Amino acid sequence: MRATLSLIVLCLATMAAKAQQIPRTVIAEHFTNTYCSVCALANPPLFNNLSSFPQVLHIAYYPSAPYAACPLNQHNKPEADARTNFYGVYGATPRLAVGGTIVPSPWANPAIFSSQLPVTTSFSVSVTIDAKGADSVATTVSVKKVDTSSLTSLDLFGALVEDTLFVAAANGEPMSMDVFRKALWGNTSLSITAPAAVGDSLVYAVTLPVHSAWNRNRIYGMAILQRSDKYVVQAGRSALLPPATATGNMAMKSGLRIFPNPASHTITINGIERETQAIVIDAAGNAVTRTSVSSTANTIDIHTLAPGIYTVQIEGYAGKGISFIKR
Hints:
By secondary structure, the chain is mainly beta. It folds into two domains: about 5-235, Immunoglobulins (Immunoglobulin-like, Sandwich), CATH 2.60.40.10; about 250-325, Immunoglobulins (Immunoglobulin-like, Sandwich), CATH 2.60.40.10. The chain is about 10% helix and about 40% strand. The chain has three helices and 23 strands. The strands form six sheets. Strands 10, 11, 12, 14 and 15 form a five-stranded antiparallel beta sheet that branches. The chain is globular, with a radius of gyration of 21 Å. The two termini are about 35 Å apart.
């Protein structure tokens, strides 16, 4: 199926609206590789740092160099490589751009994110995503001018992202987070003219086919608005793509569903029909907690668990359990 693109210009009434800048969403663009041993050392401190900043967006690109055999770049090398070249870091991983600026490792210092959180902007970016038939994804990106600004020429990059892949990487990493899957507009960003008046919006809609390698229940949309010097003016992301047969943000197994995933404080299990026991098991196979659950009491407190991958087994239900990530 060929991608379709449409542009709708909306002029919204502004008389009742008061112009005011809004917080800029910080985004961390991460260049990594499943064969990269240096990445396996540098990435965990980054993710631990990000866990303290849930408002910071993250996207991971897997370029074809220096490890061409990386399984996460096999079906979309040109677009992953193009974004890497955009920042001039092709051929070396790991690398990190925060707010459009390359930040040297190590990335454990909270200041790389906290220093950017007080920044405000004159533009908002919102993203929505929905299924288009059985084999396509419809994404809509809206750029709105919320305060006066002298900016006119901007670049808009959009992507479809898979929030978690449980891949046993060659470098020992057990999972990959926020994996870039597809650019909304190909190898380059859209060059746009910013909305002229406060309150005006530009809305871009694109429909793309779903690749067979994606877990569509974990797909979301992301957009990054930038100046010509790569400074990120604003960014935004959508919720997860609603599954065809279940509520979004759930992993399914043996009729049971767990959400949110990843989670920081609690998880909820839907599909339990009777009172039973839920056992949380860590990656080493150790039972770390056991809780009584039922159709109504189905929430488990996980806030004391260390970050990592866990499995929940429900006694009396078939299957090996339901995996989740503790952030």
